[in-house]
Amino acid sequence: DIQMAQSPSSLSASVGDRVTITCRASQGIGTYLAWLQQKPGKAPKSLIYAASNLQSGVPSKFSGSGSGTDFTLTINSLQPEDFATYYCQQYHTHPYTFGQGTKLEIK
Amino acid sequence: EVQLVESGGGLVQPGGSLRLSCATSGFTFSRYSMNWVRQAPGKGLEWVSYITSGSNIKYYADSVKGRFTISRDNAKNSLFLQMNSLRDEDTAVYYCATYYGDYDYWGQGTLVTVSS
Fold this sequence. Notes:
The complex is a heterodimer of chains A (about 110) and B (about 120).
Chain A: E1 4-7, E2 10-13, E3 19-25, E4 33-38, E5 45-49, E6 53-54, E7 62-67, E8 70-75, E9 85-90, E10 97-98, E11 102-106
Parallel strand pairs in A: 2-11
Antiparallel strand pairs in A: 1-3, 3-8, 4-5, 4-9, 5-6, 7-8, 9-10, 9-11
Chain B: E1 3-7, E2 10-12, E3 18-25, E4 34-39, E5 45-51, E6 58-60, E7 68-73, E8 78-83, E9 92-101, E10 103-106, E11 110-114
Parallel strand pairs in B: 2-11
Antiparallel strand pairs in B: 1-3, 3-8, 4-5, 4-9, 5-6, 7-8, 9-10, 9-11
């Protein structure tokens, strides 16, 4: 199985900050990577597909990059509604696997 | 408006069975592969199962292989998950979803609690 190592597991930041979350796959996955956001008590929401493509309606403050084994999610100008848990997921090879999540908290 | 509505969750004893359903509307269900994703209380997301649009290919997480069966009825725009031999560790909110392209469709989740 492909393992997804996501870091950091938690992150404290202030409103207006820029943050970066990384995800490393245990083997190459091309660009078959999604980033998801989840708020407490809510279903996850896809932000980015194919490593760098923004889902419709997702603000351009979110961006993704990478290919192969190393990927990043960058969030610019943090706003209160951005504080949530973020997950990466590879969909290159079954079983599709998630990273362990990054909880983004307000400093 | 796209809607996915899961049902069928509840409290079941270890070793028991449940059948989850996901009723969809607002998109052409028959064109999309579908997934079940679960989340144990206080834990991260876990992909559970996948089915192609035509039901010809199905995949399962190792943790549920041999116990869970995914299926769909394209005529009724519905997705199913038959869960047998349930274990304590299957306790989770179960979501039906599809999102590996320029679309992002999720249900609200249904809670399955396995406990004696």
